[in-house]
Amino acid sequence: MQAIRSPLRRVALQARLPVVRPRVARPFSTAPEAKSNTTLYLGIAAAVLAGGGYWAYTSSSDTAREVGTVAKSATQAAKAATNFVPSRADYQKVYNRIAETLDEAGEYDDGSYGPVLVRLAWHSSGTYDKETGTGGSNYATMRFEPEALHGANNGLNVARGIMEKIKQEFPWISYGDLWTLGGVAAIQEMQGPKIPWRPGRIDGFAKDATPDGRLPDATQGQDHLRKIFYRMGFNDQEIVALSGAHALGRCHTDRSGFEGPWTFSPTTFTHDYFKLLFDEKWVWRKWSGPKQLADKKTGTLMMLPTDYVLIQDKSFKKYAKAYADNQDLFFKDFSAAFARLLELGVPTAQFVSSEPWELKTLDEQKK
Q1: 240 lies in which domain range?
Q2: Which residues form the signal peptide (predicted)?
């Protein structure tokens, strides 16, 4: 590793490249950040190529992580300098690799990485604050501490590790595009609706990381849900639609403290989450963990306090009932809300397409 680092340092000194140092705090601004990132990436890309090595970092400090981000983006910048412009077909290849990875989970959870990839896409986007314009999927700041260690992100190191392997195969894609595309692929491959998506997110730095408390707290009620989702710009109908993502996956005591799946088919995207809310009798589970509900009939399913309020709050309930009665309506509304969630915090000018794409599933490509 020292042999790799030394040539890079010499080249950097000879080229008088800028040294990455902690920056003085300044107002949040996306456009200047994108410009300065590009200049820095191109400079360091030249040094990396000239030095014959790739900067690898091992320090856990924010500065080292920022250096690592710049270095990893060097490959992306170098390809751009040689007129490499990813096409829709290139993004379809990334989608396909993600889709193939879903079934490589083995004994992990219910045999699929799909639910945890949806959660990664959701949590990396749901930090957006419309008042300050901060957060969202643009900078993929969950790569940095302390955001990576926020309680709501427990266990997402698994998903980030999966995505890191794919990033090595396709180094030109940004983390924000990769993570959100992972959520799209997971939903679509688990028999969910098509999710319109388009690339254009850029990689940020540790200074762009969001404060804790921006993601939903499952122990809370309807007032908390509205505070979290209204901050992102969503309304009551969209809150309920997005909650339908709980059709997938399960909770873990070593992560959230809660335990169990929401549905009997946690790797298939359906409207069963809403049907079960109305069709089952839910009772408070008697155990040493946090407050959660269990279905009285089997005791194997669970609902969180934030789930249960969807049938207690009058406004939420009418949408939840509509989705319980009509899966097509749920799919349509979820697709629209989830697609918007994945674009929060990304300036429109950054997107490579004026209209989102609908990428094909693996099955569709076989026809």
Answers
A1: 222-329
A2: none
